[in-house]
């Protein structure tokens, strides 16, 4: 069985699912672990401190996750969904290790080099830190 991890944010992921469904024998030889990570944060303001763990709900999946799962299941792909809380890159790579994934397939977005430097890039960090193949499809 060929195992692929697909990280899905709040609005992107469908293109990665479509990539997987185009693979030969995806309905018999491929299993997918769909991962959604609620990013850890802490905000301090006049009203006090708000921490992400106070808002995190393991069952509160974005609609984008449901769309990805539906697309994969419609093509006969075995799917498992994981919802985690923490640093997205660390959680995605940890799950890929845990399930011994053969690959990671994810959707990247166009961002200028300045934007990547200022805001970081989850996709870029995964490409650089992963010890397995990473396929990036665009959302255009």
| Rg calc | 16 Å
Count of DSSP-assigned helices: 7
Unreliable parts? none
- CATH architecture heading: 3-Layer(aba) Sandwich
CATH class: Alpha Beta
What's the rounded overall pLDDT mean? 92
Euclidean distance between termini CA atoms: 30 Å
**Which structural class fits the helix and strand makeup?**
alpha/beta
CATH topology: Rossmann fold
Shape descriptor: globular
Fraction of residues in β-strands: 25-35%
Structural domain tally: 1
CATH superfamily: HUPs
Residues in helix, %: 25-40%
Strand order of the largest sheet: 5-2-1-6-7
Characterization of the model:
The model has no long low-confidence stretch (mean pLDDT 92). The protein has one domain (2-138): 3-Layer(aba) Sandwich (Rossmann fold), CATH 3.40.50.620. The strands form 2 sheets. It has a 5-stranded parallel beta sheet, with helices on both faces. A two-stranded antiparallel sheet has the order 3-4. Helix 5 (88-98) packs across helix 7. It has 140 residues and is an alpha/beta fold. It has 7 helices and 7 strands, in the order βααβββααβαβααβ. It comes from Natrarchaeobaculum sulfurireducens. This is Nucleotide-binding protein, UspA family. It holds the Pfam family Usp. Belongs to the universal stress protein A family. InterPro entries: Rossmann-like_a/b/a_fold, UspA.
Write a short abstract of this structure.
It contains 7 helices and 7 strands. By secondary structure, the protein is of the alpha/beta class. The strands form 2 sheets. Strands 5-2-1-6-7 form a 5-stranded parallel beta sheet, sandwiched between helices. Strands 3-4 form a two-stranded antiparallel sheet.
């Amino acid at each position: 069985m060929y195992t692929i991890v697909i990280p899905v944010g709040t609005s992107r992921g469908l293109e990665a699912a479509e990539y997987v469904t185009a693979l030969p024998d995806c309905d018999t030889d491929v299993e997918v672990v769909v991962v959604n990570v609620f990013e850890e944060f802490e905000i301090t303001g006049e009203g006090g401190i708000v921490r992400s763990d106070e808002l995190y709900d393991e069952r509160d999946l974005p609609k984008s996750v449901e769309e990805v799962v539906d697309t994969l299941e419609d093509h006969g792909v075995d799917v498992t969904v994981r919802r985690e809380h923490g640093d997205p890159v660390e959680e995605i790579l940890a799950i890929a290790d845990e399930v011994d994934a053969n690959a990671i397939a994810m959707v990247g977005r166009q961002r200028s080099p300045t934007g990547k430097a200022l805001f970081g890039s989850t996709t870029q960090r995964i490409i650089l830190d992963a010890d397995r193949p990473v396929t990036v499809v665009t959302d255009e």
